[in-house]
């Protein structure tokens, strides 16, 4: 499969959904998850011949078009996965996908081809100097429909993912050829590793274009994330900080762990920090201009009471 570099996508107000899944509100403090994963309740997504991925709200993005009509079947499938999944997550500075085309049918009378794939998706952002998958899916069996034209090009039409939960096996048996049932139901390590490699290649290519190719790429769980409670802050105070970060202030973009994350806003890079001052028993949030280190906004809270310090 051809590697296709994804363009920069800025963080938007829709990041709220992703961060909630990452533990902003409903996930216990002690065990924040690696990334939000998609629900796969037999989602059917259709897309036009051309589709663009762009930021919303006041966060401007470099508008990028992923062609859903190409001369390469794998490229068309991959671009379709990117469009569908990114519309769901709206997260990360760049995104990547992986897919394995297990089998496909012959074109029907309309030229449409059912392609049976295993697919995965991930969105990446900088956390504590690492490039971390902050949102994404596991390995999901999916039926991707493309239309082959007389000129030999392929157009992405739709993608139907297998159900999750109790309906998973039945949806596999309903939508996939029997010869693929076992491979879809029990994902082998070889398939999982290949998909992860493909997905990770997007992040690596992106890093090369911005001159940060030495940065380590991985999942949330691959790196240490120290929580406030790890430093002795009570659960009650830690939860108060989550309430602060659920508001509409700059603290919303600060990490839920002690550390930093980078966010692109109108093509300007900022660093959002959450720090803990052990000596003074204070929790400090700040927004910093990445290029110069200038502190633009800051707020401080008493680590023993959770009250804001004037």
Keywords:
310 residues; alpha+beta; Nuclear Transport Factor 2, Chain: A; 2 domains; eight-stranded mixed sheet; four-stranded antiparallel sheet; 6 helices; 14 strands; 32% strand; elongated; disordered N terminus
Radius of gyration: 21 Å
Indicate the percent of residues in helices: 10-25%
Q: Please tell me the total number of domains.
A: 2
The largest sheet is: 8 strands, mixed
Number of strands: 14
Q: Spans with pLDDT under 50 lasting ≥5 residues? A: 1-36, 38-44, 47-64
Average pLDDT rating: 83
Pairing-aware structural class of the strands and helices? alpha+beta
Q: In one word, what is the shape?
A: elongated
How many helices in DSSP terms? 6
**N→C terminal distance:** 56 Å
What does it look like?
The chain has 310 residues and is an alpha+beta fold. It is 23% helix and 32% strand. Strands 1, 4, 5, 6, 7, 8, 9 and 10 form an eight-stranded mixed β-sheet that branches. Strands 11-12-13-14 form a four-stranded antiparallel β-sheet, with no helix packed on it. It has a two-stranded antiparallel sheet with strand order 2-3. A hairpin with a 7-residue loop joins strand 5 and strand 6 (112-127). Residues 1-36, 38-44 and 47-64 have low confidence and may be disordered.
